[in-house]
């Protein structure tokens, strides 16, 4: 029996609750050169400088500053010329009531626009599965219009000539879309310093992306009445790997491994190979094995079932109406699912994790809301102060009453792992002979909708 029209919404958030290893994961900043536009000290007179010398500003900020004018691109612009965006100091920004600039946010200098580009290629490289965010602070002049102070941000492959067309990600920012504001004509320097707004652009590096290993490029374009200051580049470390796939290139054996000490609830996994390096006929699926805790389905979604169309490029399996726990430090064999004759090491592995949800009506803390919890509520009914959850207080107000019963009714039949899973990309480890000791690797979290996946049992030869 085929399950038709399966459309599964995957959760948009993931509860840590002890399952995920990286309790201390945090954004890490990568170095940028001259992030505050202070490396070149602008002469007091005239108080500004261009990328190339002019009669009014004879000293260029290039090459002292790493912010290259245009990086020789786009076509029609000349690198490091006197039509570049320009650096100004705080004193110059306050000299004219008609054209007062934004007071530099930090330090004494900021970059002002002239409808031109600045960019730099960093010493860091793109890595698969990481999200990179380029941020900068923006503010317009007192006489700016919404369009005349707009700013564009870019993330690009530093091994390629910079241009908007070949950038990996870019976006327009302007006051008319609420991204930042123009300086109020009545604002003091201190008020202008406080009026800067940080704008940001993010690019996530997918598996197999061509920019992997290439230098990270960042850049911006500023209209004639805009200014920027204090640029940063960061990457957000993905969580430490939870599940991974081990592939023995000598025997073709494939194993699903949990390298954590905690069980991980899953309801879906998929292995793909662009070169057709999978073997569906010798794949030992969870449905085939009918392991304890991993029931084989009968086509109605009541257990693990292989997806129709599983072949040399795709092995997919899911538990439509439930999920199973991969025990801590456990290994699950999936048979000779790898074709050693093809030998391509291009497998991609993804799986869906069901995070625990808090059940307010699970009074006995056994992972579900059932009749036993109703009995606990009955025993505590009438308590007006100081009641604990175990006594039937679901809403935490210290009393056990009808409101707690209503919460129990709403959660009756639910379990701590009854929600939809969230899809993750997992690490694939290739070994030859004896399995090696697993190492932590990275994952990327994606919110997805698994739509139209027909599940059916694959016939065996």
Can you walk through the features of this model?
The protein is mainly beta and 461 residues long. The chain is 7% helix and 28% strand. It has five helices and 22 strands. It has helices at residues 90-93, 189-193, 286-289, 371-380, 402-411, and strands spanning 7-9, 28-30, 48-49, 86-89, 109-112, 116-125, 131-140, 151-157, 169-173, 197-204, 215-222, 226-236, 243-248, 254-258, 264-272, 304-306, 314-319, 324-326, 331-333, 348-353, 422-431, 449-451. The strands form four sheets. Strands 13, 14, 15, 16, 17, 18, 19, 20 and 21 form a nine-stranded mixed β-sheet that branches. Strands 2, 3, 4, 5, 7, 10 and 12 form a seven-stranded antiparallel β-sheet that branches. Strand 13 (243-248) and strand 14 (254-258) form a beta hairpin. Residues 1-26 and 435-461 have low confidence and may be disordered.
Brief summary:
The chain has about 450 residues and is mainly beta. The chain contains five helices and 22 strands.
Number of strands: 22
Percent of residues in β-strands: 25-35%
Largest sheet features: 9 strands, mixed
Number of helices: 5
What is the CA-CA span between the terminal residues? Answer: 19 Å
What structural class do you assign from the helix and strand content? mainly beta
Order of helices and strands: EEEEHEEEEEHEEEEEEHEEEEEHHEE
Name the overall outline.
flat
């Amino acid at each position: 029996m085929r399950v038709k029209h399966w459309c599964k919404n995957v959760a948009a958030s993931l509860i840590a609750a002890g399952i995920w290893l990286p309790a201390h994961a945090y954004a890490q900043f990568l170095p940028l050169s001259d992030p505050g536009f202070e490396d070149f000290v602008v002469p007091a007179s005239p108080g500004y400088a261009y990328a190339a010398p002019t009669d009014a500003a004879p000293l260029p900020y290039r090459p002292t500053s790493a912010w290259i004018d245009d990086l020789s691109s786009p076509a029609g612009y000349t690198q490091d010329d006197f039509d570049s965006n320009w650096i100004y100091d705080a004193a110059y920004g306050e000299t004219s009531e008609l054209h007062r600039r934004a007071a530099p946010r930090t330090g004494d200098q900021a970059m002002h626009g002239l409808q031109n580009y600045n960019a730099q290629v960093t010493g860091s490289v793109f890595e698969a599965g990481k999200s990179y965010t380029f941020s900068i602070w923006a503010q317009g002049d007192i006489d700016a219009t919404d369009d005349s102070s707009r700013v564009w941000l870019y993330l690009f492959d530093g091994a390629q000539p910079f241009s908007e067309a070949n950038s990996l990600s870019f976006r327009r920012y302007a006051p008319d879309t609420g991204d930042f504001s123009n300086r109020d004509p009545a604002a003091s320097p201190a008020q202008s310093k406080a009026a800067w707004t940080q704008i940001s652009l993010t690019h996530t590096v997918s598996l197999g992306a061509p920019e992997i290993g290439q230098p990270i490029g960042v850049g911006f374009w500023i209209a004639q009445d805009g200014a920027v200051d204090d640029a940063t580049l960061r990457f957000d470390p993905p969580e430490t790997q939870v599940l991974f796939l081990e592939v023995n290139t000598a025997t073709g054996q494939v194993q699903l491994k949990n390298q954590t000490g905690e069980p991980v609830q899953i309801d879906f996994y998929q292995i793909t190979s662009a070169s057709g390096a999978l073997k569906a006929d010798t794949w030992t699926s969870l449905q085939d094995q009918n392991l304890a805790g991993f029931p084989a389905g009968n086509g109605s979604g009541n257990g693990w079932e292989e997806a129709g169309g599983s072949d040399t490029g795709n092995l997919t399996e899911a538990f439509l109406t439930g999920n199973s726990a991969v025990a801590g430090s456990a290994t699950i064999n999936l048979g000779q699912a790898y074709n050693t004759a093809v030998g391509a090491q291009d497998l991609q592995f993804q799986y869906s994790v069901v995070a625990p949800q808090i059940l307010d009506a699970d009074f006995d803390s056994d992972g579900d809301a059932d009749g036993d919890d109703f009995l606990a509520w009955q025993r505590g009914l009438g308590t007006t102060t100081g009641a604990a959850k175990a006594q039937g207080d679901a809403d935490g107000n210290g009393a056990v009453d009808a409101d707690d019963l209503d919460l129990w009714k709403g959660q009756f039949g639910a379990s701590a792992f009854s929600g939809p899973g969230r899809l993750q990309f997992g690490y694939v480890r290739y070994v030859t002979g004896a399995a090696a000791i697993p190492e932590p690797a990275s994952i990327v979290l994606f919110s997805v909708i698994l739509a139209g996946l027909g599940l059916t049992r694959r016939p065996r030869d």
